[in-house]
Amino acid sequence: MPRVPLRLIALTAIGMLLAACGQSPGDPRGSAGSDGEKVLTIGAIPDQDPQVLQRQFSTLSAYLGDKLGVEVKYLPVTDYTASVTAFQRGDLQLVFFGGLTGVQARTQVPGAIPLAQRDIDADFSSVFIANTKAGIEPFDSLDGLRKLAGNSFTFGSDTSTSGRLMPQHFLSEAGMSIDDFSGDPGYSGSHDKTAKLVEAGTYQTGALNSSVWDELVDADKIDTSTVREVFRTPPYHDYHWVARPDIDEQLGDGMTDKIKEALLGLDGSDATEKKILDMFQAGSFIDTAPGNYAQIEQVAQRLGLLN
Questions:
Q1: Is residue 18 part of a domain?
Q2: Would 219 be classed as within a structural domain?
Q3: Cα 201–Cα 100–Cα 84 angle in degrees, nearest 5
Q4: Consecutive 10-residue runs of the chain (307 residues): their mean pLDDT?
């Protein structure tokens, strides 16, 4: 009896497993639940503590499920790059990206649609912070960023808009480069970690998302006698929801429009909607368009982050 090649056995087994799950190798993972019901898979860049994000997006998932009439699942990812990869593969169909990751996702998935942004994302900013032992007093102009020279410094994720891309852009505008810091800059991975690292003195200075910083300060989760804001940047567009172009094909005609309507319809008129908006630190979600992220795309091209 002829021997069957191991590779053929493995491929056959994979095909049987996918068939049993009702999928073909090219299907998005989240297109159907275990009972055959349609599922919308959503995600986000992991810019904060995973437990915070789980509460935030699980609450939103329940709201969207009620509005859309489909099951909505939040699938966490390990890092910023993974969110773009999962979107490109179709494992995530709707993602709350930062400005840079949103541009990267639309570059990799032609036809992807920016659906909405928070009201605060039309006028977003980063903050530069310093451990008080560094002796850096607050300043109100870009030129003041030169005071950070000679200190250790940490960004957030290496592909964070508000924690790396735009801070590096504004440093450049001030005539600074990362070579002006003491040692190589760090990459903490998330905004809250950046704040804690500077608070602890692990790095003397850093930059992070202004809304996360404000939330940490308002909730007394950061010791402002040890770490303080020294500069808040000029505004730019940032976070936004991006939908894959095949959502209607996967979940039914008009589903993309329904998702957008559900997001824009969040007005805080009941306890659930108010909770969601508070979790997102927003007064509402508003319409957006690709042109809002042209500046981010230009900066990303210059820094080689769209290759």
A1: no
A2: yes
A3: 100
A4: 40 37 38 70 94 96 97 96 97 97 96 97 97 97 97 96 96 96 96 97 98 96 97 97 98 98 96 97 96 95 86
